[in-house]
Every structure is written in C-alpha cells, then in structure tokens.
Amino acid sequence: MRIRVVIPVSTEIWNAGVHEVCQQAADRDTTVEVVNLERGPESIECMYDEETVAPFVIDAVMQAEAEGADAAVIYCFGNPALEGAREAVSIPVLGLGEGAEVAAMPLGDRFGIISTLSEAVPRHYRKARLLGTDGKLAAVVPLGLKVLELGERGRVIEAAVAAGRELLVRGAQVVVLGCGSLLGVADELRKELGVPVVVPAVAAIKLAEAYVKMRAAHSKLAYPRPPEKVRK
C-alpha cells in the first residue's frame, strides 16, 4: 500500500519529521510518501491561506493518484481543498483535522483541540460544524504560537500542557493536537494530563489504511466527478 501525504506549504522543513511520524504509524506493508508544494504559503494559519493554496493541493492529490498512490492525506488540520480533491480522484482522500476529530470521538464524551494562534480558534469551530463533530467539541484553546515557532520544543511543551489543562477545565476528556506541526509532544501531554491525546498524523494514516483495506473510497454520489469544461 502507498499513501501520499501532501503538506500544503511551499517549504520542505516539515517533510522529514512528518515522514518519520507517519511511517512509524503505518503498517509494515505501507509505504508513506511525503511531498510539499512548489507554490503556496510557508504555513497555513487562516482561511485565506487555505483557499489560496486549494488548486495546488488538488493538483498534488491528482498527481498522487496518477502515480499509483492508494490513498492521499492532506496534511493540514484545516483540511484545505478536501472536498474538491475528493471530486477530482477516485482514491480515498483524508484531511488531517478530519481524521483526528473522527478518531477522538469514540475516546470520550467530549474532546478539545489545542490550536496555534487565537486567530485560528473560530476557524476550528467552523470546521467542526462542517465535519459534524461540533456536538462533541468542548473547546479550542490556542498556544499563542505561530506554526513556524512550533520547532521550539521546550516552549511548545510548556504551552501545550497549559492549553491541555485549560481544555480539561472546560470539559474535554480527550485532547486533539490541532496542527500537524505539533510533533513530539503527545507523550509528555499524556503523562501530564492523564487523558488520551490524538496525534493527527497517526489518526489520518490509520484511517487511510483502513479505507484501502476495506476497498472503500468516497462515494461518487456524494463527490461526483467535476463536469467537463474549459478551465483557464
């Protein structure tokens, strides 16, 4: 099985870490391929970023299918271009945030999301409504850090533990890491908080593998092929 992970940014700085996490999570017979985009922002932090990058994400997913990938993962918690990509191809396409929230729901009555910036909080609530997971979403608490600051491990862990504790106070029983770049903090959070912590990369990879093994892809009644027309 081959899963293509598309990081929808124009930098390679996350590729190696994302590949390591995803390949470790995958089954032995699964090969994970990680690519980033040639064009787009250096990080995704708002709807403007998501919507400007959408055509490049769809092209990357279409290329994954053309090159024989069995499934694709759009590696951003906001799931940019997810529905358009599903219309464009016949292989399963998973969004990072979608996979994480779906995985979190059976683990407790309510889950909470650790976000990056406070400006991202409304977007996470909006996306949860679109996914239908908002009924189990207790709260979204930001770290107060930009995506490109998430490599500062000590600072990130301190902020994540504080955010996780706030989520528990606000009724969450499960914590979801609300950014694909929050790598290497889950074990510390589990230890400090004593609750399940969902890593989006792991959730999305395992869900993609499950769909491939079930020989199931998204229904074309829900995601029909785009009509043929001139597009300039």
How would you describe the overall organization of this protein?
This protein has eight helices and eight strands; from the N terminus they run E-H-E-H-E-H-E-H-E-H-E-H-E-H-E-H. Helix 6 crosses helix 7 (186-193). The protein has 232 residues and is α/β, with parallel strands linked by helices. It has two domains: 2-95 and 203-213, Rossmann fold; 98-200, Rossmann fold. The strands form two sheets. The chain has a four-stranded parallel beta sheet with strand order 2-1-3-4, with helices on both faces. The mean pLDDT is 94.
Q: Which helices and strands occur, and which strands form pairs?
A:
Layout: E1 2-7, H1 15-25, E2 31-36, H2 47-66, E3 71-74, H3 82-88, E4 93-95, H4 96-104, E5 111-115, H5 121-131, E6 137-142, H6 153-169, E7 174-177, H7 186-193, E8 197-198, H8 200-213
Parallel strand pairs: 1-2, 1-3, 3-4, 5-6, 5-7, 7-8
Helix pairs in contact: 1-8, 2-3, 4-8, 6-7
Q: Quick summary of this structure?
A:
The protein has helices at 15-25, 47-66, 82-88, 96-104, 121-131, 153-169, 186-193, 200-213; strands spanning 2-7, 31-36, 71-74, 93-95, 111-115, 137-142, 174-177, 197-198.
Name the descriptors.
8 strands; four-stranded parallel sheet; alpha/beta; Rossmann fold; globular; 232 residues
Mean pLDDT: 94
> Using only CA atoms, what is the Rg?
17 Å
Order of helices and strands: EHEHEHEHEHEHEHEH
Based on helices, strands and strand pairing, what is the structural class?
alpha/beta
Identify the CATH class of the largest domain.
Alpha Beta
Helix content: 40-55%
* Alpha plus pi helix count: 8
Q: In angstroms, what separates the terminal alpha carbons?
A: 35 Å
Shape: globular
Q: Could you give a short account of the major beta sheet? A: 4 strands, parallel
Low-confidence stretches: none
The CATH architecture of the largest domain would be 3-Layer(aba) Sandwich
Q: What is the number of strand segments?
A: 8
Q: For the largest sheet, list the strands in their spatial order.
A: 2-1-3-4
Number of domains: 2
Strand content: 15-25%
